[in-house]
Amino acid sequence: MSARDDEQIKEARKGKTSSVTKYYAEELKSGVHTLDDQREHSLFVESLIKGLALTKIYIKAENADKIDDIKIPKEEMPEGWDDSTKTKVWAHFKDLVKESEAFNNSNEVAFTLNKNADFHESFYGDENSVTICTSESTIYVLHNHPNGSSFSPDDFRVFTESNSVKNFSLITNTCRRIEILTKLDGFDESLFKSIVNNAEFTRPENAISYIKQKLLEEPVGVKWSVYYEQENDNHK
Prior knowledge:
Layout (H helix, E strand, L loop, with lengths): L2 H12 L7 H9 L52 H21 L5 E5 L5 E6 L15 E6 L7 H9 L5 E6 L4 E7 L5 H10 L5 H14 L4 E7 L8
Parallel strand pairs: 3-4
Antiparallel strand pairs: 1-2, 1-3, 4-5, 5-6
């Protein structure tokens, strides 16, 4: 963890940071959550608690190179991917965050890719959402989340209802975390919709935990992968 990140976390504990909600600052002080609960807590204030409404983080174009530090062990590669797929998708993520920073005020941008992971179309949104239009040739969807949250109800809807989409992914604006939803053989659309509909998104962190647990318990046919920037020794 850098000295700057550590200082921001200290400010969050005092309830003085603009990067977390007043609610979460109070929970930090009360000890409801600890900084060791999840690894992403030590990566950046955006991940103090995944899913809460955090303030938008503005992209630094040079941070796009951090994406190369987000590794995927071979045994954790999304179904149907190989090293070539990962290289192409990561390159598109670099282009996406640069485009968001340069042309959309660090707000949400989405890319759709075809079966060869080649670029097809881009869509611009606002700080909290982006409307994504898919077609029969859309296999991959990539987008960014300016506030560092995990998947939203709209994300789950597009992933579920777009029959051609096999991979739906997000990257945070710090370029330190990528999440990927993958449809597996036997994907059960109605069961997945039911699980998402039963999640309580008024507390996003609880909704995300609930959905992840259900994916482990039920034969849904969805894999949810989360990959992080690999920390160097001087950042630990």
